[in-house]
Amino acid sequence: MPQRPLALAVLCAVSLMVVLDGSIVAVALPSIQNDLGFTSSSLAWVVNAYLITFGGLLLVSGRLGDLIGRKRVFLAGLAVFTLASLLCGIAADQTQLIVFRFLQGAGGALASAVVLGMITTLYPEPRARAKAIGVYSFTQAAGSSIGLIAGGTLTQLLDWHWTFFVNLPIGVIALALAVRLLDPDRGTGLRGGEPLLPLRIFRLRAVSGANTVMILMVAGLFGFQFITALYLQRVLRLDALGTGFAFLPAPVSIAVISLVFAERLNHRFGARKVLVTGLSLVALALGFLATVEADGNYATDVLPALVLMGAGFGAAMPALMGQAMSGVAPADAGVASGLINTTQQIGAAIGTAVLANAAASRTGSLLAEGTAMPEALTGGYRVAYALSAGLLALAAFVAAVVLRDRKAQEVIVA
């Protein structure tokens, strides 16, 4: 099928656009607050409105794709997301922006929940599927970091409206191509007795294990991103744009490993070994960050960890995504895709809450003891990094114990 690479590009471009939107707006929040008069507490709803609907509808959207057809759900979600992006960009007050962000999150969930299921259907051959999942995994792994860079650039060179307007040309072009390139699928039909989350998929060892690993991995890494952004700005004194570019080595490393080497590594050594090794490298990088100092230097204290982390994550993510879809029946591909995306959101919420509270608690204790602010902040961040490293080490342990190589799984599934 000569059109398959282009169809894959469309699916991954939309997935990247949706992932970007979770972080691209973060850098623009001060400008949005100034223009629309948000208070510090109400400003959080610009982010939360998107995340609530996005995370809450992923599982429903994935199952809906199984029942009525994944192409229909994907196109509907993409259209809603693109329209909502336009409405967010022209929002004239706080209420409008928050309402349109809810709508944008719903469209993002519909579009992204079925992408992985569509890719596995589009590429039934194991090696070709592994390579395609590597491309998709890059969009998931590097999207947030790219969003920070894009958000800072657009806000500084233009204004906050363009963090939403940038989605319009991508969305319109992707919609036109998707209508022509993606094969239609009818789905199994709306049957009243069909559960939202069929428990049979959890009998697959790969699905259960992969989703457990995903929660642990994302909890550690999403919290790491939050904490590192604070360390770079509040301790090393980088501005918003500088902070965005400081993260650039991570997505570059992810791209090199996931797009160039991941498929060959998985084919030669097996997904489980690659996953465990990748997670171990990420844990090592986080352990390195747990030694940062208040008078630290980006080039020597942060950059090496970002490169190592990107390499480990670039190897781990494609292997994990492949495991999450391994042995899943075609009729359940949508719900399996939605499930692994949902566990990402759960892990992100857990990681941010746990690590932020741990860092704040340690910083507060140090301040109470009379420690200067930079040293107190750094002490809190070191605790958070150590917890992140522990979560990744636990993820590697679960992957080593629970998951199996592909050939063994296929025998069990058969």
UniProtKB/TrEMBL annotation:
| Annotated membrane topology | Multi-pass membrane protein
Locate the Major facilitator superfamily (MFS) profile domain: which residues?
A: 7-407
Record has Transport as a keyword: yes
PROSITE patterns in the cross-refs? MFS
Which Pfam families does this entry report, sorted A to Z?
A: MFS_1
Annotated InterPro entries: MFS, MFS_dom, MFS_trans_sf
Residues annotated as transmembrane = 42-61, 73-92, 98-123, 135-154, 160-182, 210-232, 244-262, 274-292, 298-320, 383-403
Where is this protein localized, as stated in its record?
Cell membrane
Q: What is its main location?
A: membrane
Record key words, sorted: Cell membrane, Membrane, Transmembrane, Transmembrane helix, Transport
This chain's protein is named: MFS transporter
Q: Which organism is it from?
A: Amycolatopsis oliviviridis
**What is this organism's lineage?**
Bacteria, Bacillati, Actinomycetota, Actinomycetes, Pseudonocardiales
